[in-house]
Design goal:
Layout (H helix, E strand, L loop, with lengths): L2 H8 L1 H14 L8 H13 L4 H13 L8 H17 L14 E6 L6 H14 L4 E4 L6 H14 L3 E2 L7 H15 L3 E5 L7 H18 L6 E7 L5 H13 L3 E5 L9 H9 L3 E5 L7 E3 L2 H9 L2
Parallel strand pairs: 1-4, 1-5, 2-3, 2-4, 5-6, 6-7
Antiparallel strand pairs: 7-8
Helix pairs in contact: 2-3, 2-5, 3-4, 4-5, 5-12, 6-7, 8-9, 9-10
Bound molecules: guanosine-5'-triphosphate.
Guanosine-5'-triphosphate (GTP) binds next to helix 6 and helix 7.
GO molecular function: GTP binding; GTPase activity; signal recognition particle binding
Subcellular location: Cell inner membrane; Cell membrane; Cytoplasm
Subunit structure: Part of the signal recognition particle protein translocation system, which is composed of SRP and FtsY. SRP is a ribonucleoprotein composed of Ffh and a 4.5S RNA molecule.
């Protein structure tokens, strides 16, 4: 299956929700009036695109004065175009740019968001691009997180720096940067704990991790990526706010777009926070994380 097919299949539930309601709101030959524009705006908000984008799409449609009405393909295309415009501004694949190496990527997010799997998928993509990769099991809070990252590392064939459960995470990150530098590794991806229950503790730990890493590499971490679970819907927006405060995030990855009818929330996130979107996950397989493409996403979201 091509990536586009995967994306479309993955987004089916979001697509069905938005595409069906738009199709139901097309007017055929009847002029698009205010009442119908209101309904379209509500459908867009209902599909999690957020009030700002929904309002703008409504205004666009009102300006275009569809006096002769608008059919379902026309309405979907108009929505897709606006979604694409919003998303094109933030689509930005992760790039390995740091000199000297390693390029350090800190991966943050709440437990269960798909962090570990995303790290594995990213590692795999980088190795496919002939970069050397090292992982660091920086979520030292949970033994399962350490074990899982080690399993992935072994499967992909990349080294992993890990410690015991409860080990000092900033210290481990320091060791990892040192090891990656000594080995001449291109990319170091560091997992972190995701305990939002203790915001102050998490903030301290992530801040300390940054300070410690910067002793060895002043520009690191070069990326701080927040992994979001699409199935949490609007809660993803709250998570961005919290992690922006605690972790200085520089970009987003959204996982589980395949299992969710809430894919539209990525549009709301793009509009509200203007953070780069690096990749989206549309399945549990290693190939199910791909760089984010705005036009594909816009079309897939409305079912085109
Ligand atoms: N369907 C689907 N499942 C995914 C995707 N990404 C991750 N998962 C699954 O989500 C679950 C949680 O993923 P993890 O990578 O373990 O999440 P985590 O944030 O590291 O979670 P902890 O290790 O529990 O902190 C796993 O069962 C993954 O297989 C995705 O894009 N689609």
């Amino acid at each position: 299956m091509s990536w586009l097919d995967r994306l479309k299949t993955g987004l089916t539930r979001s697509t069905a929700k938005l595409g069906d309601s738009l199709a139901g709101l097309a007017t055929g030959n009847v002029p698009l009036d205010d009442a119908r524009l209101d309904e379209i705006e509500e459908a867009l908000i209902g599909a999690d695109l957020g009030p700002a984008v929904a309002g703008r799409i409504r205004a666009r449609l009102a300006d275009a004065k569809f006096a002769r009405g608008i059919d379902a393909p026309g309405l979907k295309a108009a929505v897709a175009a606006e979604v694409t415009a919003v998303m094109a501004a933030v689509a930005k694949p992760l790039a390995v740019t740091a000199f000297p190496r390693p390029h350090v990527i800190l991966v943050v997010g709440v437990n269960g968001s798909g962090k570990t799997t995303t790290i594995a998928k990213l590692a795999r993509r980088f190795t496919e691009q002939d970069y050397t990769v090292m992982l660091a099991a920086g979520d030292t809070f949970r033994a399962a997180a350490i074990a899982q990252l080690k399993i992935w590392a072994e499967r992909i064939g990349v080294p992993v720096v890990s410690g015991e459960q409860g080990a000092d995470a900033p210290g481990l990150a320091f060791e990892a940067v040192k090891a990656a530098r000594e080995a001449g590794t291109d990319v170091l991806i560091i997992d972190t704990a995701g305990r939002l229950q203790n915001k102050a503790g998490l903030m301290d730990e992530l801040a300390k991790m940054r300070r410690v890493i910067q002793k060895l590499s002043p520009a690191a971490p070069h990326d701080t990526v927040l992994v979001l679970d699409a199935t949490t819907g609007q809660n993803a927006l709250n998570q961005i706010e919290v992690f922006r405060d605690v972790a200085k995030i520089t970009g987003l990855v959204m996982t589980k777009l395949d299992g969710s009818a809430r894919g539209g929330v990525l549009v709301a996130a793009a509009e509200k926070f203007n953070l780069p979107i690096h990749a989206i996950g549309v399945g549990e397989g290693m190939d199910d994380l791909r760089p984010f493409e705005a036009a594909d996403f816009g079309a897939a979201l409305v079912g085109n």
